[in-house]
Amino acid sequence: MKESIVISVGGSLIVPNGGLNTDFLNKLNKFIRKNVSSNRRFFLVAGGGTTARHYIDAGREVIKKITPEDLDWLGIHATHLNAHLLRTIFRDISHPRIVENYDRKITDLKEPVVIGGGWKPGWSTDYDAVVLAQDYGANLIINLSNIYWVYDKDPRKYKNATKIEKTTWDFYETLVGDKWVPGLSAPFDPVAAQLAKRLNLTTIITKGDDFRNLQRILDGESFKGTVIRPYDISAAYYDRRYYLGEKGEYKYIKGLNLTRNALQQVAAWYRAMYIKLHFNPKTLLDVGCGTGELVRALRKLGVDAKGVEISQDALDLAKEEVKPFLVYGDVTKIPFKENAFDMVVSFDVLEHLERSKLKQATKESVRVARKQILHKIFTRENRVLELFHGEDPSHLSVFSQGFWDRLFMSIPNVSVARKFFRLPSVVETVYLLKKN
């Protein structure tokens, strides 16, 4: 399964002041070609930029009572011109058809790049980008703008404007409203924002000509840019009710504490036996250990296991016998020394982290491991598990295996093991890293 990334390329980057920005286009060309692969695909949607605004302004000046539909058509045709330019640049690696009718989905898509332009009145290219994300299974839209951040007010007019690093679609709507106006200058179209909210999509708005920063976004590192999500995810989500089973991610067993606890016990012992039989480490750290059930099971099997967990509620609910072996800590800054454990494991932890923290969290798991690192991650290939998963707002980073392949292979001093016992990816995704 390919990782699909939708990039809304602001027309102001392609045509900033009525003239084409060939420096930006050259850098975009190199960036896309560097990052396309057998398991990654880009959808580039071109905006109209100043070309669209010049035509819209001219139409308003000459025809005083021009209709919003006619104004929209002027902007749409400007996006087609920019889209054709991008299609020419990526001619050898892009699909031959520019997407201009979003009712016509490409059914046999093989190329790693797809170019889109505007479609019809009432729809901005931001909206088109959201439709592409829906149709081709992307869960991330990167909106390339001429600024890094969304602000609570126009920074060009107000010196006290405050940048927003993370927010929700609900709050964003309070800033830009809920209606589309032809030629509207907003970080992300209000109507597109409403659709993105319904589809539970995440959008990153950032400065489009900082390609080093864009690379950090793709690589799961910290970056500059405003992240807009469908939900407000905070530490409160992992509160006492979550660990008591009153609030969780699985269908059919929500609120059924006995069933949930029994399944947790079975899972803990299955994982403990799997680790003991296949790897037999003397010392082990469980990162994101929750209430410590895996640590408890491993210790009963003779493994000197410890756990680290960021939720104090989880640590408080742990059984007394295992509490001495659990510590409070952040996965991006694990409170143990380098090479402290034979093996480090995490089960269903990384998908709960923000994209910007994934590489640092992985590096930390490698740092404190002496030999092996095992990560079980919920990915888009896990169709069987997906049947039992309800809507989980804390799943911030559910990607295809292609994303994780690239991330783990980019970590220094480790190799990714290909041959070890694991269930098929339709059931679960497990990675084993070996420290060199």
Structure description:
The chain is of the alpha/beta class and 436 residues long. The chain contains 15 helices and 16 strands. The strands form three sheets. A seven-stranded mixed β-sheet has the order 3-2-1-4-8-9-7. Strand 13, helix 13 and strand 14 (369-377) form a beta-alpha-beta unit. Helix 3 (49-62) runs antiparallel to helix 4 and helix 5 runs parallel beside helix 7 (190-198). The two termini are 29 Å apart.
Helix count equals 15
The helix-and-strand class reads: alpha/beta
Largest sheet: 7 strands, mixed
Shape: elongated
Helix content: 25-40%
Fill in the keyword field for this structure:
7-stranded mixed β-sheet; 15 helices; alpha/beta; single chain; 436 residues; elongated
Topology readout:
Blueprint lengths: L2 E7 L1 H4 L7 H14 L4 E7 L2 H14 L5 H22 L23 E4 L8 H11 L4 E6 L4 E2 L11 E2 L1 E3 H8 L13 H9 L3 E6 L3 H8 L7 E4 L10 H4 L13 H22 L4 E5 L5 H8 L3 E6 L2 H6 L8 E3 L12 E7 L10 H10 L1 E9 L5 H6 L12 H9 L4 E3 L12 E7 L1
Parallel strand pairs: 1-2, 1-4, 2-3, 4-8, 7-9, 10-11, 10-13, 11-12, 13-14
Antiparallel strand pairs: 5-6, 8-9, 14-16, 15-16
Helix pairs in contact: 3-4, 5-7, 6-7, 10-11
